[in-house]
Amino acid sequence: MGLNPFIIFPETSVEMNIVSTHTGEAVVCLEENGRYEFELSSPGYALKEISGILRASRLSGRKACGVIEPGNYVGLLKVELIETISGKGISKLHLDVRSRKLSYESEYRKMLEDIADRCADFLLQLDSPVEQDFVPDDEQSEATLAQRLYFLKSLLGGEDFQMAVQRIVSMPNTQWTQEIKSVDVRRSRRLGRKEVRQFASASRRMATPETHALHGRLASLPEKLQVEDKRDTVDTPENRFVKYALQVFSQCLEDLVQKFSGKKGAGYPGLQSEIGALIDGLEETLSHEVFKQVSMPTLLPLNSPVLQRKEGYRQVLRSWMLFELAARLSWAGGDDVYQGGKRDAAALYEYWVFFKLLDLVAELFELEKPLVEELINDKDLVLKLKAGKHMPIKGVYKGAGRPLQIEFSYNRSFGVNGYPAQGSWTRQMRPDYTLSLWPAEFTATEAEVQEVITHVHFDAKYKVDRLTQLFGRSDEDLDEEKRQQRAGTYKRGDLLKMHAYRDAIRRSAGAYVLYPGPEKEAAPFRGFHELLPGLGAFPLRPDAMDDGSNAVKLFLKEVVAHVCNRASQHEQQTYHRYRIHKDEPPDRLHETLPEIEPETGVRGAPVVDTAVLVGYYKGASHLKWIQKAGLYNFRAGSGPGSLVLGPGVSDAQYVLLHGPGELITGRLCKVVGAGPNVYAKEALVDKGYPSEPSLPYYMVYALDVLKQGNPLNDYTWDVRKLSGWREHRGSGYPFATTLSELMKARVSL
Predict the structure, then answer these.
(1) Could you tell me where the beta strands, DSSP code E, fall in 57-100?
(2) Alpha helices in 189-331 (DSSP H)
(3) Which of 171-180, 294-303, 331-340, 493-502 has the highest mean pLDDT?
(4) Would you say 657 and 623 are in contact if contact means Cβ atoms under 8 Å apart?
(5) Least confident stretch, 539-548, 650-659, 700-709
(6) Strands, sheet with 330-331, edge to edge from the N-terminal-most edge strand
(7) Confidence bin at 271 (pLDDT 50/70/90)
(8) pLDDT (0 to 100) of residue 488
(9) Picking from 17-26, 43-52, 529-538, which range would have the lowest pLDDT averaged per residue?
(10) pLDDT in tens, 361-375
(11) Hey, which residues does 343 pair with through a beta bridge?
(12) What is the CA radius of gyration of the chain?
């Protein structure tokens, strides 16, 4: 921070004092998300208001003053001095707004360059040929010019390009060339056949000196000989192309500077100064001794092996191709970032994270379509990436034994739809990035309805600095949270938004914050024992050494492995959710029922999942034997009256007994053990069975009376109201039901 208390407007005597409301110090460089008060020294002047950034004080009787809040905008902030009465503009100056979370000179610029490089790389992948202009259209908007300026600056200002040019001038491509020149015959050295012939055929001649060895044989000698001279030259087609490319780069950048100093770009000297060093560097390179010996090209040798393969030349060729394509590129989201010379750091971070996640998804999954076709309109070269616009990219995964369909979406909206359709059940939600995975045998719609799709959401949160802003753990943290809510800087709400995504959007198993924090480790939380469902945060920062993407990559691999695990608890949970909710809910049941299993001390199963067998006893002696032996036998087999093995039979927890003429009964017994045993009829006789069994085998359940205090002791039931009951001879046939249906057949006393 500078400590000059006053800033003077150009060509005026008006001074402006800017003071930080946090430190009370005078400043000349502002920081994003800061708050600053300003005051003008001279009456009769004011600053033109900027919506959401600069506003004047409405207090009367004071000098012109107000507040500047740059928010997430980083770069040059144009401030205009106007006359209070007429509103006429008098002067302009620029304030430098710097990033607080990212290093302005390294990480912030790397984020800009990464975005530019990715856009240019996509352009190179286009299949359809297009004609390119070197200079953008004069009618393009100020934001488009600024956007393209940064694209070109990243291409030419990168370390790779600078090193490539230095390699060329230090080890230029050369080739042997032959040159015919006239040499005085007296200075000729080794003579070949062509030179010997010229002794007899050359036209301009002189008399042979008397002292010469050839005197007497030749009357005259040629004055000059035409000889071939072979030498190494740097004037090669490849070097001509490099010189041409550097000149084009320099000229195009100068044209852009002129546009920003013209009508459309007036008042943005900072944008001009950002590329001045690049132009100077190009001119210095072109003045090198190597390029002084290189002429202008007559053709572009783009198929030259030297240009395509040799170190240095290859990078210049690539930069030239990217440069030409970038000159035509428009970005649908560029206005969000570059308007008015400002660069919205939060919007830039969101786009940068998109490209990072796209790289990871493309590496892990097979994409059905080339990414460039999804991102670039090859008719007019418009990058489709724009905040608020849904962009899905689909792919497949064939590993881990379970083929999956993949969809990576940017700004996917989940509208409010009724179950079981996809979407939110409260309010429309739109996460920044959504990864959806489902088995390949299902369509996306089928996977939503049958609960086999898994959504994992990510949100880019540029304003989050540290994990402690997301996860408060103490009373002091909660007090700070309340203070932030009142001040409008509440950051823990970002984590709560992840809860909203996961809980409101159907089939969402996880939601995670991506933020440019200094931490090196992620902080994911698991809802239960497994990776999903979960919440958390991952640091992702444009750091050349470690940007944090490896942790996100590992997490995505774990997500895929988890979804492919057919024995996971998450798989069971989604299956039962589908099974439970696919039908309309049953009737209400508000009766007193057992809550805890006495044997285990844990909660009992829901009444809809509690199986009850309805059995018939043949008479008083049969009932007495059941009560004494604690056993009940069902017929096994396929004949009439046999118990059919089906749902609710082997895992039955209760048996309801009724006898001849007994249609209303309260004889409910608890099943003891894990299920029925198969008894031969001889075993039943040994147990004191009161009559001769008619079948060879029976399914026998061990029974016990209900414990004292069990609420079920207070009920009786009408077996005729149960769906499995039959009339006449079938009234004694056994059947299975559920405790919920049984309670509907209760008899009020």
Answers:
(1) 65-68, 73-83, 89-98
(2) 193-201, 237-261, 269-286, 289-292, 305-309, 313-326
(3) 493-502
(4) yes
(5) 539-548
(6) 330-331, 382-383, 376-377
(7) low
(8) 42
(9) 17-26
(10) 988 888 766 666 667
(11) 74
(12) 43
CA–CA gap between residue 586 and residue 638 (Å, rounded):
32
Neighbours of 720 (CB within 10 A): 12
CA angle centred on 299, ends 295 and 301, rounded to 5°: 100
* pTM for the structure as a whole: 0.69
If we measure between CA atoms, which residue out of 353, 347, 453 comes closest to residue 71? Answer: 347
Query: With left for phi above 0 and alpha for psi between -120 and 50, is residue 475 left, alpha or beta?
Result: alpha
Q: Which residue has the tokens 């509907």?
A: 744
Integer CA distances (angstroms), 162 to 168, 542, 660, in order: 10, 21, 100
Instruction: Enumerate residues 6+ apart whose C-beta is below 8 A from 285.
Output: 165, 169, 246, 291
Find the length of the chain: 749
Tokens of 539: 């640091």
pLDDT per residue as tens digits for the range 365-401: 887 666 666 676 655 556 666 666 778 888 899 887 8
Backbone angles phi, psi at 660, to 5 degrees: -60, 125
- What's the Cα-to-Cα distance from 341 to each of 76, 96, 144, 601, 721, rounded to whole Å? 6, 11, 10, 69, 78
For residues 510 and 214, give the distance between their C-alpha atoms in angstroms, rounded to a whole number: 101
Residue type, 389: K
Domains, the chain: 7-98 (2.60.40), 131-170+236-327 (no CATH), 400-576 (no CATH), 607-744 (3.10.590)
Half-sphere exposure of 548 (CA within 13 A, CB side): 20
Which three-class secondary structure state does DSSP give residue 123?
helix
> Is the pLDDT reported for residue 133 higher than 70?
no
